[in-house]
Amino acid sequence: MKLQMRARQRFLFATILVVGALVAAGCAGTSPDDEGGGDGGGELSWAIGGSEAAPGGVHREVAELWNEENPDNPISIERLPDDAGEQRQQQSLELNAQESGFDVLGMDVIWTGEYAVNGWLESLEDVRGEIEEVTIPGAFESAAWEGELWAAPYNSNAGFLYYRTDLVDEPPTTWDETVQIGMQVGEQEGIAPFVGQGAQYEGMVVNFLEYYWGAGGELFNEDASEVLWDNDIALEAVEFMRDSVENGFYGSGFNTFLEEESRNEFQSGNAVFLRNWPYVYGLASDKKESKIAGKFDIAPLPTFTGDGTISALGGFNNAVSAFSDNKEAAKEFVVWASTNEEVQTLLGESSLPPTMGSVYENLQDDPVMALLGEVLPEAKPRPPAPMWNDISVTIQQEIFPAYNGEKDPQEAVEAVGAFLEESIQ
Amino acid sequence: MSPSVLVMALVAAFPVIYAVILSLYLYQGRLREGFGGLENYAEALSSSRFWGAVQATFIFTVTSVGAEFLIGLGFALIMRQVFIGRGVMRAAILVPWVIPTVIAAQLWYFMFSVTPGFVNFSLGLDRFNWLGQPGWAMFSIVFADVWKTAPFVALLLLAGLQTIPDEMYEAARVDGASTWQRFWYITMPLLKPAILVALLFRTVDALRVFDLPQVMTNGAFDTESLSILVQRFVVQTPNAGFGSALSTLTFILVLVIGVLFVRALGRDFVLNVEDE
Amino acid sequence: MATAEGVVVESSPQRKIGRYVMLGFILLWCLFPFVWLIDTSLKLGDAALNSPSLTQGPFGLDNYLSVFDQGFGYNLRNSAIVAGTTTIVCITVGSLAAYAIARLPLKGKVLILSAILAVALFPSVALVPPLYELWRSLGLLNTYPGLYIPYTAFTLPLTIFILTTFYASIPKDLEEAARVDGATAFQAFYKIILPLAAPGVFAAAIIVFVYAWNEFLLASTFAPRDLAAQTVPVAIAAFTGSVEFQRPIGTITAACVIVTIPMIIMTLILQRRITAGLTAGAVKG
Fold this sequence. Notes:
The complex is a heterotrimer.
Chain A: H1 2-26, E1 44-49, H2 58-69, E2 75-80, H3 84-96, E3 104-108, H4 112-117, H5 128-134, H6 137-142, E4 144-145, E5 148-149, E6 152-158, E7 160-164, H7 175-189, E8 192-195, H8 202-214, H9 231-246, H10 259-267, E9 271-276, H11 279-284, E10 296-299, E11 312-320, H12 327-339, H13 341-349, H14 359-362, H15 367-375, E12 380-381, H16 388-403, H17 409-423
Parallel strand pairs in A: 1-2, 1-3, 8-9, 11-12
Antiparallel strand pairs in A: 3-11, 4-5, 6-11, 7-9, 7-10
Helix pairs in contact in A: 8-9, 8-16, 9-17, 16-17
Chain B: H1 2-22, E1 25-28, E2 31-35, H2 39-45, H3 48-81, H4 86-98, H5 101-112, H6 118-123, H7 136-161, H8 166-174, H9 179-206, H10 211-216, H11 226-236, H12 240-275
Antiparallel strand pairs in B: 1-2
Helix pairs in contact in B: 1-12, 2-12, 3-7, 3-9, 4-7, 5-7, 7-9, 9-12, 11-12
Chain C: H1 13-42, H2 47-50, H3 62-69, H4 72-102, H5 106-118, H6 124-138, H7 145-168, H8 172-180, H9 185-196, H10 198-214, H11 217-222, H12 232-237, H13 249-276, H14 278-281
């Protein structure tokens, strides 16, 4: 009997413990009215993610600026996760249910066609003129699909070649030259010649396309009705990557690197060259954090021919949800954010590349913005096709094993070509 | 009690039925194109990517569950015997398991990375590319999973060990049984139900592994598991019909293996009851 | 009671030493990555990302401060409520169901256990789209029930399995003796059976709690942003660096240490309960 009493006491104790913990936790207070929903009358909600959507980020400043000028239709940020894939999933769930929770959608430049074909976006064709007039052509292209404008460009991005000024005199303009200098200096210093984004993900697709485009290749014609994929050029790009793994031009671990891993290699002084986005410049210049502060510079990415430069274009566009209860105000907002000089300058000052061409003239003192002003007109958007994600996954599935010596390169580039044909049928 | 069980059953059964129905339709992206019968299944079963994922999943499951069982059993036997610092010891063993899987995956991604390269640093290796070559990529993922879930197995086995009365060991020792004999003839048979439950749940979980390969390799170098493949067609490049067919196939596979375990378990229960 | 725990096997000096070496190995295996985690969480700036050395600073508590600046206290509260509710509901329902099943004949048992198992075997990524739509129409998005209902559904099978094995190993005579003494069926269950199955009950409780505390996929879809329901793993995944692309490894590891410490304390408490059942187990034999 005594034994059972004990057992019961134990149970009671455990129950009290759990309930007590819950009550204590419950007393911690109610949630603050942080980023409230936007389903009220004139209010707008802007679904956008990333560090700039966090408190203190430039998206918040842009929203405040709008709210000062438009107290009747204030906008608030629905902060999405950091990862672009998860941002897309959260938007998709809401839009697929035809719900009005999001009025303005912050979209990666590659989602335009997919969202448009799904009927999730309000056409911006009637405001096309004012946007096209001020926007960098590549960024504008990324917001249109099948001749119709679906989004307003907001911020852009392009890849740079980072190089060590203490080891390299002049930045190379061709890939052959980059390999030659990189291998020589790398061996001398005992560091990796080159790092970039080589893991199996979207970033590798970007790196691969820069080689492919830099060798003169194209994916589609202008209205995406015809495939221009060239097996020979693609093979040249793949063979270049494959050789780079084998001869050590790519630093060890290249095929697992995302943006941050490659930045850290370069910033720790472990690489001669780096392909990365503009964000690295500020971080690598920080004397406290970086071993190479003051010892590096940026240049346009090389090509195979040495003519000009080519970069994949990144960034975000704003679109109006087809299920918004307040489309007019939402449209006004996206046009304003895309064409207002104050907003676009604010982005530039926060190291987020603007899409408005004229802003760069005022930002010439900033070396990153100066180079962007030079590179962005030449930058190519990945085609914002409805099936871009499928195309990207196919490139990852074929090109990644091919450049790592796990698959025949010829077969891989043919498979990508075949898939591109399939995607426009 | 029964209404709540009913709610739970509905919550769990609804998505399954929903997916089975969707799997019979053909889709282009998110747009339904018509009824396709078993076409999605035929496509899945004839794709090399599906069979690659099956192979990767099986390699992962067999190696990770095997290692987890051996290590977990070792932990449980030791946890039962420890006297000094027992509480701390037991909590320490459970630490890996209470770390959220998403974070554990990131932690091991960092540890195995070339940069900062903590594993290489600890082993004195120079820039060994664990996650960037075939074989070692899978090894790293299995290692991370074993580290994370061996404690779970240990916990279940320890609970089972606690029900074996000391008197049985005493009696065996009086009869002159060695440590090994006591382990093999007393511990193992009496622990069998707990072992089966632990293996059952580890196996069905391992067959659906997602976070670790997703974060550590994103499916590169033959580490694409069935759940990653399902995620690709449900979320990344949505095709509701094909994605549902893949989920259903995964479900059937896991279920068949699960039921085999349950049958073994059921027989064991009966033996126990008859014994007493 | 505590001294009754564990079995004393031979304790020759060599064996003792061997055992402590084993213990040391286990501690190293389990805790080394955790030590790395704590160490990294104390590193400032990019040192966390590019230096494998445990001793290379600069060190400081900045990461912890910035975690709490982001409203992490609310996330901790939400996780505690969701995981606590899941555990209570799951254990209550699960122990009654398991008891009923344990007393069934073999055929019925295999069938019912298989059916229970089946509901938890669907790949979780495929659950999301249909449940999202259902939750939306029921108004369960961004609420606690929206999380603990599916969590209970998917952990109930494990609970029932664990408890069934425990009940099955308890002799029927004990129960019958109680019934002879005039106890009702429920009294017999509550007073005799349940205490005997205590190690299993507490093991199951820990497992359910940890699952609900750590679950990410469903939580990130059903309560992605609203601080009134957002749980800890989702909050950690939403951490951002100071500029785009930058990975906030410092705050991630700091948050991870913060959520792990209460879990360690809880397992420490519940762990004792598991072994405490041993005395009860000794009744059998």
